[in-house]
């Protein structure tokens, strides 16, 4: 397993660790640091107080947003960044939940305009305010107010048999936030290195920043999403999630061969190069032997004969000697 757990005595220390250590390099690999939740035991925020947080930097994740607000108040219960499913990029806003109304109001008052990442964030109520019965939704949050239901609907979706994480027909990984230079071969090598399972297909939508990787079964796909999400590829953290279409039942395809290592020539090119080297060595050896033979033949003749051969006027020689004359002249 490529994960572990660290326990802190204080919640603030754990929040600081998430903020400062997420995506740091350990032995050449970027690590992902987040809050640990027991499966199915994430806190229900139905009756909590939600605030809207806008102007988020693209690099701010759920864990970074939660760490920022939980460091301010231990009564912060949840934080979600809204992601574009098509591009895999942050929409630039999110929602934060608090267990009591006073802490939520204090966070709005104290953290509005504070720096998180590379931007100053904007905070406001995402639901009804503290001292008013009127709806205080901001213009930004009105258009996405229905997203608040995600806080309570996630548990229902997880139990839904048609959800990708529960449906064995889903075998494709959606990979978003791809750098412009990422090609199909680069993406293939990236997921092959994860060792999640047999890869059947790799596609990259050039110029759109996303691609797809298809595995042989549902379990391998889930492992690839878990291990690949947030890893750095081409200087950017990739966003891995389930593809939006299931594989039709009965569809089978052969696994792709392992990708070639970057910078290594193909086998045919390597054989051609070795053959050219061998031919070059053979030609050099033959030329050297011929030069030695001609040198010995020239030394067997007199000086006059050599001069005659050089002048091209030595006529009383055999056919083989005439050939030697011509070779020596050239």
Automatic annotation (TrEMBL):
The keyword Repeat is assigned to this record: yes
Domain of life: Eukaryota
Species lineage: Eukaryota, Viridiplantae, Streptophyta, Embryophyta, Tracheophyta
Pfam families: RRM_1
The entry's keywords: Repeat, RNA-binding
GO molecular function list: mRNA binding
Region (Disordered): 244-263
Alphabetical list of InterPro entries matching this protein: Euk_RNA-bind_prot (IPR050502), Nucleotide-bd_a/b_plait_sf (IPR012677), RBD_domain_sf (IPR035979), RRM_dom (IPR000504), RRM_euk-type (IPR003954)
Domain RRM: 49-128, 171-245
SUPFAM superfamilies hit by this protein: RNA-binding domain, RBD
Official protein name in the record: RRM domain-containing protein
